[in-house]
From TrEMBL:
Alphabetized PANTHER family for the sequence: NITRATE, FORMATE, IRON DEHYDROGENASE (PTHR11615)
Protein source organism: Crenichthys baileyi
Family, similarity comment: Belongs to the NARF family.
SUPFAM superfamilies: Fe-only hydrogenase (SSF53920)
Residue intervals of the Iron hydrogenase small subunit domain: 101-157
SMART domains from the UniProt entry: Fe_hyd_SSU (SM00902)
UniProt protein name: Iron hydrogenase small subunit domain-containing protein
Superkingdom as given in the UniProt entry: Eukaryota
Length: 167
């Protein structure tokens, strides 16, 4: 069960990778808290060998620690979900604000409890998603979905400013 509003993408990628790469059906992820509740990891192990090692890190302090590990080549992670907001996206600037009689921590706790109560579904098993694909895309095929729903990232060449050239 997901305990926080963030981590859903990590959860999906982890379960999908476990199934596709190693034939492992992962029903529930067990997160290990590392430095604090905003830095956690989850592993898939077989016969003592680590097959997958994913992490979630929230808040700038934890992100800085992760970046330092990456720079030193000391990161064991195959995938990391990063969010700038402490406690993940349920605590982000775009979320509901507390009422005048409520403090931020109480509201965050309430929203986390509501989130925990929801039943998670994998997108490939969600009938609502399948119906949207059929209605909107008129197919469950991958090509049209890729064409309309996926994006690609390209390197943006640095522009040369004529004013900065040393003559």
């Amino acid at each position: 069960m997901r305990e926080r509003g963030s981590g859903g993408y990590l959860h999906h990628v982890f379960t999908y990778a476990a199934k596709q790469l190693f034939g492992e059906e992962v029903k529930e992820l067990t997160y290990k808290t590392l430095r604090n509740k905003d830095f956690q990891e989850v592993r898939l192990e077989r016969d003592g060998a680590v097959l997958l090692c994913f992490a979630s890190t929230y808040g700038f302090r934890n992100i800085q620690n992760l970046v330092q590990k990456l720079k030193r080549g000391k990161s064991p992670y195959h995938f990391v979900e990063v969010m700038a907001c402490p406690s993940g996206c349920l605590n982000g600037g775009g979320q509901v604000k507390p009422s005048s009689s409520q403090n931020q921590k109480d509201l965050l706790h309430l929203v986390e409890e509501l989130y925990k109560a929801e039943r998670p579904l994998l997108p490939e098993n969600d009938t609502h998603v399948a119906k949207l694909y059929e209605t909107w895309l008129h197919t469950l095929g991958e090509e049209r979905a890729k064409q309309l729903l996926h994006t690609e990232y390209h390197t943006v060449e640095k522009m040369t400013n004529g004013l900065t050239i040393k003559w």
